[in-house]
DNA sequence: TATTAAATGATAAATATTATTATTAAGGAT
DNA sequence: ATCCTTAATAATAATATTTATCATTTAATA
């Protein structure tokens, strides 16, 4: 991935913000440094960088996607009312209860595990495509 | 919530399917029994029922939302390629490793905890509105 | 410096979801 | 059983977000 000015500044601003911004929130911030940048560039690069594992894309109850530039292992708590996302630090050896206590004043409604991966049928497709 | 024919059949079909369908997939199935139903009714009722906790709304990497009629405690694994979602049974005393082994042939890329709740500022708003 | 491939900016298009509104249906009151 | 009231529905317009397109620009390097 070529290092462009746009890409660097998008990443810098995303890492600086601790608010898990949406694409358009980040666009507003980046525009102060790059007034001619296009919103499409912001979307495109957030997508590319999250595919590459440089940043993370966060889902949020059907609302706008949010992005996180922090790669240290941690969990999130989602506000079901306003969509805000807050970090939950995952500490070695901490129980789920400990984590919840760390959740910065959120009134927790539910929590659980969630996995991401590649399903068997997509694994098959990828094998076929490789040949 | 009034029990309408549409609502009952949407819930019945969602519970019968084990595929975590999208709103439009479910619409196609329900339409076989109620040919005159509107897609808006399906969306509306899925939303209402998930607010009421009767069913669950699942997010999926910016794709279409999916829905789950199974209320027993369990986790999910999301296919990052095609968007399919599969259940991961959460058994009392099982470790994360055990759960991953139960994930039906998925090649797991990552997993973690996720919480939902109400953030402090929305809690304040709710207190104000109550008065 | 010239070349080439990738990235950008501007905007159109696609997609998913929500809002609107006239009509219909459910459930209780009479 | 019929009427009344309110909520739900169907149809569709509107909105919002995201992605695609394509001519132009830029970065890297030959």
Describe this structure in words.
The structure is a homodimer of 131-residue chains. The first copy, chain A, folds into two domains: 1-69, Winged helix-like DNA-binding domain superfamily/Winged helix DNA-binding domain (Arc Repressor Mutant, subunit A); 72-131, no CATH class. Chain A is of the alpha+beta class and 131 residues long. The first copy, chain A, contains five helices and five strands, in the order αααββββαβα. In chain A, helix 1 packs across helix 2 (23-33), helix 1 packs across helix 3 (39-51) and helix 2 (23-33) crosses helix 3 (39-51). In chain A, strands 1-2 form a two-stranded antiparallel ribbon. The model of chain A has no long low-confidence stretch (mean pLDDT 83). At the A-B interface, strand 3, helix 4, strand 5 and helix 5 of A face strand 3, helix 4, strand 5 and helix 5 of B. Chain B binds a DNA duplex (30 and 30 nucleotides) through helix 1 and helix 3.
| Shape verdict of chain A | globular
Largest sheet of chain A: 2 strands, antiparallel
Structural class of chain A: alpha+beta
Q: Determine the N-to-C terminus distance of chain A.
A: 25 Å
Oligomer: homodimer
